[in-house]
Structure formats: C-alpha cells, structure tokens
Write a structure and sequence with these properties.
Blueprint lengths: L1 E6 L9 H7 L4 E8 L6 E2 L2 E6 L5 E8 L3 E9 L5 H5 L7 E8 L4 E9 L7 H18 L5 E6 L6 H10 L3 E3 L17 E6 L1 E8 L10 E7 L1 H9 L9
Parallel strand pairs: 1-2, 8-9
Antiparallel strand pairs: 1-13, 2-5, 3-4, 4-5, 6-7, 7-8, 9-11, 10-11, 12-13
C-alpha cells in the first residue's frame, strides 16, 4: 500500500497532487493545508473521501477507487495551541477514515494529521498525537492504523519515538529531510505513525512549490496482525 502525505503550503502546491498521485501509483493521498472548498472530487483513479469543514485550509484524503471502499470518514478537533486561538484558528487537526481494502479483504484506518505549529511546545504536540491515535482506535477498534502528516516535530524525536513505542505504535521518519526552508528549522517534519503494519520504506520525494517535501510511505499489513484479525473474525468481505 502506497500512501503519500503532502503539506500544500496554504494550497499553493494543489496543482501538483494529480501528477504526484499518478506518478507514484498512490493508493492513499493525505493532504495538509489544502483548500477544502476548491479541491477536485477526483484525481484520475482517486476520489476525495473527506475534507475539513470548519477551517478552510485544512486536511483532505483521496483513495484509489478500485481498491478501497470507505466505511466511515470523520474530522476531529484536538487541543488548541495559543497560535490556533489567537492568530489562525485550526479547529480540526485530524482526518481519519475506516477503509475496506478489497485486495486483502480487510479493514484498516488511515489518517491525515497536522500538529500545532512550532510556536507551541512539544508537549502539546505529543498530547495531540496521543489524542489523535485515541480517536482512530475508536474509529477502527483493533484495526491496523496508519497516520501520516505534518507533525511539526523537528527536534527531540527520540523522546517521541519512545513515547509512541510505549503506547504500542511505531514512528517512522523518511530517508531525507522534509523541510529545508529555514536553516534553523530544517529537519524531518513529516512522518508516519503506525500500528499493525510493517513500514517497508518512507521516502522523501522531490521538492515542489511547497515549503514541505512530500513523503511516500510503503506499508503492508504484518502477518501477525492478519492472523489476529482472522482469529477474532474481524475479516469482512461484504464491501468487496
């Protein structure tokens, strides 16, 4: 399963997403800072699942129509930073979807996430990440989950990694930096959090017009999770 995450920099890079999805044969496309009103309903083989409703520049997700059936899709509010309250309100920082994968006959949860900006503390972003994962567990109890996006977490990532592992999730950074606009803030901003999946690779793609570089996540359902789903009867082929 190929998933791309891309922060469009206030929608400036929206013209790139169709070619990006086609060039890399993307299954799931997760966007941040997208103009939800202006997004096309289809990008070639992909269709728009959902987009944020209460903040115009927000989150969106496209999925491959011939592979996935959408069980449910929701946006979620997370704890706000001071920046959100005073300067540029962002009501919804998580978009999650429960998808039925026709190729495997199994359900999974995919999500696009955008953490509070760098003016906030890492502790707030960790709170947002944990709250986001909790929402995804409610959306798909016990299901494999992949959350990608702009985590705005360029430093002390080892602490975040330990924190995620203690909570039962894997944190995976890409092979190259994803943000290089400002010298003091260069680093990995965009990455993946997963559970019940093997992340085979996370690759930083070529720069576009955004200040973030898109990432391509290649993930597969791990064998142990597949067997657990079969054992407890979580396999559902009704949407195939």
């Amino acid at each position: 399963m190929k998933t791309v995450s891309y922060n469009l920099r206030k929608n400036r890079a929206v013209g790139e997403i169709g070619e990006l999805a086609n060039q890399h044969e993307v299954d799931i496309l997760c966007l941040q800072e997208a103009d939800s009103i202006a997004l096309p309903s289809h990008l070639g083989h992909m269709r728009l699942v959902h987009a944020t409703e209460n903040n115009r520049l927000g989150l969106a997700m496209y999925v491959r129509e011939d592979r996935f059936a959408v069980r449910a899709a929701h946006t979620f509010r997370l704890k706000k930073s001071l920046h959100d309250r005073v300067l540029a309100p962002a009501h919804e920082r998580l978009l999650g979807a429960r998808l039925h994968d026709r190729e495997t006959g199994r359900d999974l949860v995919a999500a696009s996430f955008h953490a509070a900006p760098l003016t906030a503390l890492n502790s707030l972003r960790r709170h947002q990440i944990h709250a986001a994962l909790a929402e995804l567990r409610v959306l798909g109890p016990g299901l494999p989950a992949l959350m990608v996006g702009d985590y705005n977490y360029p430093v002390f990532q080892n602490k975040l990694d330990r924190n995620m592992r203690e909570a039962g999730y894997d944190l995976t950074l890409s092979d190259k930096r994803t943000y290089t606009r400002y010298k003091m803030f260069r680093g990995h901003f965009d990455f993946a959090t997963s559970s019940g999946m093997n992340i085979e690779s996370v690759r930083t793609l070529d720069r576009g017009t955004s200040d973030h570089l898109p990432i391509l996540v290649h993930a597969v359902l791990d064998a142990e999770t597949q067997q657990q789903l079969i054992d407890r009867g979580a396999v559902d082929l009704s949407a195939a």
